[in-house]
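ligand=pyridoxal-5'-phosphate
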Amino acid sequence: MRVDLRSDTVTRPGPAMREAMARAEVGDDVFGDDPTVNRLQASAAERLGFEGSLFFPSGTQCNLAALMSWCQRGDEYLVSQDAHTYSHEGGGAAVLGSIQPQPLELEPDGTIALSRLEAAIKPRDDHFARTRLLALENTFGGRALPLTFMREATALARRRGLATHLDGARFFNATVKLGVEPKTLATLFDSVSICLSKGLGAPAGSLLLGTRDFLKDARRWRKVLGGGMRQVGVLAAAGQYALDHHVERLAVDHQHARDLASALAGLEGVQVDEPSTNMVWLRVSSQLEGLGAALEARGVLTTGTSLLRLVLHLDVSAEQVQFVARVIREEATRLART
Ligand SMILES: *Cc1c(COP(=O)(O)O)cnc(C)c1O
């Protein structure tokens, strides 16, 4: 058996999704006349409570176009130290947008202290970059950050005249976990990006949500960044299928993560935190640092070495969860003896 837990991006389109892709009506989306793309953009906007949305090839490009729409050259955005837009997108905001990131240290629960946030907003002075935007992420490292933090941080940003963006690559993992309507979380922000290609199971695609005016700018940046696509309804159809069929079932992945964590409880040399959504993190003792490689040899793919990340998703069954737990126990026990 091979179980790929490196990411929820590894999900593959199933027969029904492929069928929807094959049947999709298409047009040239750069001219705005792909009906499947237009339907997806409208239905996502309606679902999340925005005026509109825009289909992108990737989440990275989606976030970058958002940052470039909010911030001009020499502006800055506030972001947490470990946020994807800051640490995992090649520094795109700075490299391609001339936007200065102001990374902020995190609290142990993944939030940012409001006092730290407020202190990072620069006064208007020629010495400083102009602070324009607060970008948050939810889920963050597989953790659903509480709605109260999202409310307070965005309210603070608004009070201080900043725009707010949510990197919601795993937005629906957060809303399913928090038990809130998508609109409740999304409308705290001026713009939101969501990935269709992670736990939702589409082969590619992200959506950026915002006002009509904001999306006019974002659409232009999408073109500049090379993200204007043509008969892309075949991908949008997969995204539509994902939104229609794969949102509520994210709770299954969350349950699988809890099942896996509890099956590993008490295992010597392996510290497992209680999972919040679809990720299980294993902090392994130095003696067990070869665990990831040992698992790979047994067909269980993970990422990391001393901190292993296991991501549950659409293509992992309950039976495979049990298999993974058994293999981890066996390999950890074997390594502990050597
Ligand atoms: C995956 C991810 C993105 C976007 O990644 P792409 O691979 O470019 O689609 C953005 N933010 C977070 C938090 C992510 O996990």
